[in-house]
Write a structure and sequence with these properties.
By secondary structure, this protein is of the alpha/beta class. It has helices at residues 18-26, 51-61, 78-91, 112-120, 140-144, 157-167, 169-176, 197-201, 211-218, and strands at 7-11, 31-35, 46-48, 67-71, 94-98, 126-132, 148-151, 184-187, 192-194, 232-235, 238-241. The chain has nine helices and eleven strands.
Length: 247
């Protein structure tokens, strides 16, 4: 069971590097599932657009040290997202990455299955990393329960006001002044700003160091060539890769 399960936000205007940072964090985690709204997280161990297939993979991966799946929705509807969240909550012990959170919730509405992950996910070992361009359009419940923020440049007054209400005016002003492709973090508990991806990578209990090296060290029976030749296992006539991000 994941011992640390914080809720983390990665936000900023379009084209500043949010998804790049989120992918960097995701590649470091041993158990991962992604709501891949725009199909930007390949390759992962398992990919599907079918909630039942996702549930089957997560059931197979339960108890395994390594697992990684991405769900690419057909239409990106709230109904698809809720089916994704239900499968994830049932599985537990994962980092859940949600791209474009503003597309599946509103300022005054948090979909019930997603809300269960946000409010109660830590009791099932579910950490959460959500990403959005617009802070003013995501659920107030989601922002109020977010523990750590990683912010790129924002320019919309409504978004900056929403950030200031949650994290303080000093942090909002710092974010507003950021040049493109730079970010600054904020820890709600300590009320302190920070920089550096290593801190973000280890928030969910992952060890320091790059993911491929961790895999090679902890699985010494794998030859080096396996870093580029993913290992597979077969269950119910379906092949699942054992380890994410080996390419």
């Amino acid at each position: 069971m994941m011992k640390q399960a914080p809720v983390v936000a990665c936000f900023g205007r379009r084209g500043v590097g949010k998804t790049t940072l989120a992918r960097t964090i995701a590649r470091h985690q041993s158990r991962l599932v992604v709501w891949d709204y725009l199909g930007e997280y390949g390759p992962l161990a398992f990919r599907t657009s079918d909630p039942d297939s996702l549930a089957e993979y997560l059931s197979w991966a339960r108890g395994r040290r390594f697992a990684a799946a991405r769900f690419i929705p057909d239409k990106g509807t709230v109904e698809e997202f809720e089916a994704f969240c239900a499968a994830v909550y049932q599985s537990g012990n994962l980092l859940v990455v949600v791209e474009e959170a503003a597309a599946v919730c509103q300022a005054s509405y948090l979909p019930p299955a997603f809300g269960r992950i946000v409010r109660q996910g830590r009791h099932r070992g579910l950490g959460l990393l959500w990403c959005s361009q617009r802070l003013n359009e995501v659920s107030r419940t989601l922002t109020s329960l977010t523990d750590v923020w990683a912010g790129f440049s924002l320019s919309e007054p409504g978004d900056l006001q929403a950030l200031a209400l949650r994290c303080g005016r000093e942090y909002a002003d710092k974010v507003a002044a950021l040049p493109r492709f730079q970010w600054v973090g904020f820890d709600v508990d300590s009320q302190a700003m920070f920089t550096g991806t290593e801190r973000l990578k280890t928030l969910w209990g992952a060890p320091a160091g790059a993911w491929p090296e961790t895999v090679k060290e902890e699985n010494s029976h794998l030859k080096a060539r396996h870093v580029r030749e993913p290992v597979t296992a077969v269950t119910r006539n379906r092949k699942f890769r054992l380890f994410p991000y080996l390419r």
